[in-house]
Amino acid sequence: MKKWSRARKIWVGTSLVLVLTVGTVVYKLADRYLIEHVEAVVTTTASTSTVESAHATYDDWNYSSDNETINIKKVQTGSGSDMITYFVADVTLKNGATIQTALADNKFGRNITENTSTIAESSNAVLAINGDYYGFRDDGVIIRNGTLYRDEPARDGLALFQDGTMKSYDETEVSSADLIAQGVTNTFSFGPILVQDGEVASDFEHVEIDTNFGNRSIQNANPRTGIGIIDANHYVLVVVDGRSQNYSRGMTLTEFADLFKDLGATDAYNLDGGGSSTMYFMGKVINNPQGKGQERGVSDIIYVGA
User: What is the pLDDT of residue 47?
Assistant: First the structure.
């Protein structure tokens, strides 16, 4: 049997170490960004109502029922490479109706995704936008429909309350127990805060949301999704298209915050944007996701039901 030379043994050993190292890195990346990690399965009861109920009226841009009034505007400003296209949904809720949320595949965990429209249709939503894509990270305070799923304070969050109000807050300063005691139904962990107490919140030039792989400055013009409140039970949901030459360049965070202030929002919060930014209304996606009309799977939605 022929003996291997020392050099060959070193080469084989080094190769094996390299293969194992690369394999470990690839597995960790797949585990972080691709493999589903289900932490909870949500049991839901299907609604028996439909968006075309006898007491509702609607057209391409408006919807009215006993529980809500929705008016949507498509706005275009600028021209050529500086054009911006965005959609504003003005929502007034009545008779105890509240802003609702739903999870992809009715499961809580990382890397569980469905298109906004798919989750919306399963939830019998009239209007929906993408949420905070909580499944991309493993921190933050996540309460959905009154249930605490994650309690890892990390950043500025948003809280929606049963009484039809909403408030941004510092996750590291308010406990989840206090939030639930105060009547919080849903929290979101993305940001930054755009408007607080009627004023644009801060200088967004150097804002960072987290240190996840691929994190970069988010001040530049991009597709955006956000939610603001004008008064109790009166919300504005905004989706900005982007990355589409001569149709929409997107908005900077400063422009986005200014827009919410101009709309009369006393508080407003930035949700997941970029390729996730999607607005669904009456059975169809009305904006242009990713600049190509192609939705990207997300972890969750915010919606108004029938």
Answer: 45
CB atoms within 10 A of CB 145: 14
The H or E element that residue 285 is part of is strand 284-285
Q: Give the mean model confidence (pLDDT) for residues 187-202.
A: 95
Clarify whether residues 176 and 132 are in a common domain: yes
Residues 6+ apart with CB under 8 A from 120: 102, 128, 280, 301, 303
26 and 88 housed in the same domain: no
Q: 156 and 191 in contact (C-beta within 8 Å)?
A: yes
Mean pLDDT across the stretch 184-188? 98
Report yes or no: 263 and 236 within 8 Å, Cβ to Cβ: yes
Strands 84-93, 125-130: parallel, antiparallel or unpaired by DSSP?
unpaired
- Give the pairing of strands 156-161 and 184-188: antiparallel
- 12 lies in the same domain as 95: no
Q: Does 118 lie in the same domain as 18?
A: no
Q: Give residue 29's domain range.
A: 1-35
Backbone φ and ψ of 139, nearest 5°? -130, -175
Residues 149 and 17 in one domain: no
* Rounded distance between C-alpha atoms, residue 170 and residue 201, angstroms: 13
User: Which helix (H) or strand (E) segment is 255 a member of?
Assistant: helix 253-262
Q: Is the pLDDT of residue 27 over 50?
A: no
Query: Among positive and negative, which fits the CA dihedral 167, 172, 178, 180?
Result: positive
The answer to whether residues 9 and 108 belong to one domain is no
Instruction: Report the distance separating Cα 60 and Cα 78, nearest Å.
Output: 24
For the segment 210-260, what is each residue's pLDDT rounded down to a tens digit?
Answer: 654 444 557 789 999 999 999 999 999 999 999 999 999 999 999 999 999
Tally of CB atoms within 10 A around 16: 10
Same domain, 66 and 177: yes
The per-residue pLDDT for 151 is 98
Query: What is the pLDDT at residue 39?
Result: 74
21 plus 97 within the same structural domain = no
